[in-house]
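Q: Structure for this?
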Amino acid sequence: MNPTAGLSKSRLLVTVLMLVAGAFMIVPFLWMISTSFQSASEVFSRWLPSKLDWSNHKRIWTGNYNFVPYYMNSLKVSLISTVGAVFLSAFAAYGFARVEFKGRNTLFLVYLSMMMIPPQVIFVPKFIMFNWMNIYNTHWALILPGMFSIFGVFMLRQFFMGVPREITESAFLDGAGHFKIFFRLILPLAKPALATFAIIDFSWHWNDYENALVFLTSPKLYTIPLGLQNFILENNVDYNGMMAASSAAIVPMIAIFLLGQKYIIQGIASSAVKG
Amino acid sequence: MRKQQWAGYAFILPNMVGILLFFIIPALFSFGLMFTNYQFANPNFSFTGLDNLKRMFQDDQFYRAIKHTGIFLLSVPVSLVLAFLVALVLNRSVYLKGLLRGMFFLPYISSGVAVAFVWMLLFQPSHGPINEALRWIGIASPPGWFADSDTAMYAIDIVQVWFMLGYNMIIYLAALQEVSAEQMEAATIDGAGKGTITWKIVWPLVSPTTFLLLVTGLIMTMKSFAIIQAITQGGPSGSTTILSLYVYKTAFSYYEMGYASTVSWFLFAVILVITIVQWIGQKRWVHY
């Protein structure tokens, strides 16, 4: 194809059309942010606020229903879960990818088959077991299971299998064991893959609503999704407040996405398996 | 070699403990509950054999939930076709590809309850911007969306399509990179038009991707109820209660945990069937 002037004109036209379509995709976010800066009388009547009204955001952060504790809870749960999941998944993934041992394939098949189990099947028994273990209605009910990710094992295993054998072969000859090789050679090489998984996993925990719904009942333990729901139940006509609160929940994800876009897109494209 | 054995178990053990404790044991436990009339808060329960299964197949709400799940699943093929078209255009014929890709992908990363609440207001029947826009273009009585039991499930579908589009697009973009320029050019020389190339050459070449996305999309959609629970809680009058939400409500609103387990295993059975179809289909239908 020759990039002639005519061709690039049509390309420009297509770009504009796609920008319009793309704008439709992000209109909900723009509308949310715009509404969060409007005064109560302006909701639904105009697209842009007549002047920036910060009071909604102020209310979210300092008012009676402020989001500071929800934020702290979400950060705590998401960070600990993600760090745990990255390490535990990397360990197991290395075992599955690079160590030969009896029963490896069977075990991996068990892992894969667990991906088919819908969370609804295990909510009830987990609810009962967590009551026995005395971790129901504590953050541990989210953090402990959150540290085990079948998707993470699967994704990192794919990556480790792609690391050329020659790289580890010479270290073996020098007498290094699997642990040394894992920590000194493989982990540093896997930084991009680990980062990809960490971002995807963190966003999953940050947005997780279903587990929090089942396992948390005390408002002081609520994570952001439940905090939002609580806010809306108690202030159901405060549309500006709702949108300010929603912005507070979404903006960190948008920021992470913009910073880690490359990793996220590569990670998703290379392992279309999350289920 | 013996050393290898031990190293293998040592690497897997920490993870295995958690998988056992939080996936495998609960799954077995749930399977057992299926045959009981267990209710939380009532320590006396008995084994009731297949009673729960009988009850399920006579339960009108169960059949309604299946129908709603079916409508919910319509979002999967719709979002696939749209994602394919967007990926096709982004792959070859635009400027600002990175920006556009980001715009279409943003909904997926910011998923969750916050987005659900934004849509709740956008679809608000009397003053919401969507209905305002519809009135502006001359539709005097636009739909009630989430507030109307006839339209609520379809409104949910719109949100779901919007949410899944970017994810599917990313995978299609990766697949389109594999379609070689030579294949396209050969077809152009043979005199094929753009439309013909797309449907006769590109679409079949990405069929493994379409198949994978269809299967994983169906499974993922079937398992998720967060958006629905946040927007409608399954209402109005039960019109958006899909199977996964029905399980949740049966277990945690009515505390009928034995029966809830039974319905949840039906959900598993459907996922199992889809997965088996995938195994067989991958070999047969897909054009490599």
